[in-house]
């Protein structure tokens, strides 16, 4: 059986002399999967979605949706797909419900069926009260829900969502995530682009990390993070900006002692408390990375700190994130 999406050696060059926006991308998306394309601004995510959704032609390469070539058979492809573009494109001359009905009519959905689906989708997206509203009166979050409802009116088999949660407040974001999970349960294949690694991690069955038009890695979020060396990071915050004078040993000695502990892969001292969510100047911390069970290591870490005159006041453990994967692949932060 064919994949939901097949991208083979896709290249898209907007100008003959400009670098390729998509530079030899290949991946497949399974039927019923939520697939995340994760990459920074300008990575080529929207361009890839543009080609897959027949909005633009590729320079070279092939794209198939359920075995249908999107370049050779765009009309057939459009029946199979729906897209929620990065910039909302509702018809401002129509109200919410009419936007849904017109879209379905364009796709050849019969009258009774259109009316039934519009009512169901307005309800699903929490828009029943806005059904008769002009779209220009909607908030950004409401407009985006209308775009999703409209996209679903012709019962597509694959839905492309281009940065769907950009600009949404936390509540709308959560609502959107619930709807995406629901679509997956109904068997709709979802391809979503994002530069938000938490979103990619929590929603996607598999994630493709793209940068500069190339695919750098593709796997389940768990496999991507587990492949990183170092495993879990334990961060111990210690009081003050200096250790108690009389018993203080230099931070280097503490780092050396932590490094000696069985199971520790690496240890470091961080005087500035980077990325712990603590107010600046509240103290400093020591960080230890381990591939072993972090819980078994905690007592040793704490005792080592206390033995060396440092007073632990906070403790956290973190598994590597997709952000760490991206940094290890590119040497840069995702955003
Ligand atoms: N219509 C266009 N004409 C010329 N260049 C373009 C066009 N659209 C995109 N590009 C360029 O192609 C590259 C990839 O852009 P694209 O919009 O696909 O990235 P993206 O991953 O979607 O980024 P973002 O996260 O900012 O939406 C960028 O360098 C961009 O400047
Ligand atoms: Mg984009």
User: Strand portion, in percent?
Assistant: 25-35%
Shape: elongated
Instruction: Look at the structure and give the CATH class of the largest domain.
Output: Alpha Beta
- Largest sheet properties: 6 strands, mixed
Bound molecules: adenosine-5'-triphosphate, magnesium ion
Distance between the termini: 38 Å
- Please give the number of β-strands: 14
Number of helices: 11
Structural class: alpha/beta
CATH architecture of the largest domain: 3-Layer(aba) Sandwich
CATH superfamily of the largest domain: P-loop containing nucleotide triphosphate hydrolases
DSSP helix fraction:
25-40%
How large, in whole angstroms, is the Cα Rg?
Answer: 25 Å
What ranges have pLDDT less than 50 throughout 5 or more consecutive residues? 275-281
Please describe what this structure looks like.
This protein has eleven helices and 14 strands. The chain is an alpha/beta fold. It has two domains: 221 residues, P-loop containing nucleotide triphosphate hydrolases (Rossmann fold, 3-Layer(aba) Sandwich), CATH 3.40.50.300; 88 residues, 2-Layer Sandwich (Alpha-Beta Plaits), CATH 3.30.70.1340. A hairpin with a 2-residue loop joins strand 9 and strand 10. It is elongated and about 80 Å long. 38% of the residues are buried. It binds adenosine-5'-triphosphate (ATP) and magnesium ion (MG). The site of magnesium ion has 5 residues, from helix 1.
Tags for this model:
binds magnesium ion, 335 residues, Rossmann fold, alpha/beta, 2 domains, elongated, six-stranded mixed β-sheet, 14 strands, Alpha-Beta Plaits
